[in-house]
Amino acid sequence: MQTKISGKKIIITGASSGIGERLTWHIAKNGGIPIILARSINKLEKIKEQIEKQFSVECYVYKVDLEHRKDRTQVIANILTEHQKIQGLINNAGIGIFEDVMHMNEEDIERMFQLNVHALIQITKQILPYFATLEGEAHIINIASQAGKLATPKAAIYSATKHAVLGFTNGLRQELTDSKIEVTAVNLGPVQTNFFLSADPDGTYQKNVQKYMLDPDQVAQKIIRYLFVKKREINLPWWMDAGSRLYQVLPGPMERVLKKQFAKK
Asked: Which family does it belong to (predicted)?
């Protein structure tokens, strides 16, 4: 059991499925108290029921559409009013739509930036003053992407949002160096989740990268291992992280050599 988690309240956005759902499960398994947010209240209520039955810990659910500023502002305000000593925030909610820039519609661009960037920054900013008042530790974990380090065709807009998440996370970490608030970025390759229902509706990309896809439960376990532990980044899979690092040194040669691989969307 991860004893650092036991008894701590942790907010998880996008918790109704995929990584968020598995994070909720493992937090509860380790004695933590999940506060879970998503649009689908029915899914959240089912998760709450299962967790409370199996682990005998409390789980709180909040319905919210994070694409809307007023909605997300209000739900965080409610949570901070209704709960004492929240110590963790995992900004997990996100969306991807794979399309070349010329054919991407403005509504999809707006959706990605609202959910991936604006909601993440706004929620973090709203909760920071509260974290600063805590006598104990607090931890902010932002789910970014390997795409934030290495952009590929048909993911220019998605990569731009994740570049923004990484930039925000790295800057925020430096601002909070002298505080008890830890800040961690999680950079992932493709994960087998509902993310691809919108990102890749015809299944082409999923088929091409199926053997490389990460398991959401294993991803959640890795993140939980570093919750309330000083950790700059979590990068999965290791070989994709190595490729991202090499790209920073040799972008031109890598784009030429991996042209077909990059274009699998």
From this structure: Belongs to the short-chain dehydrogenases/reductases (SDR) family.
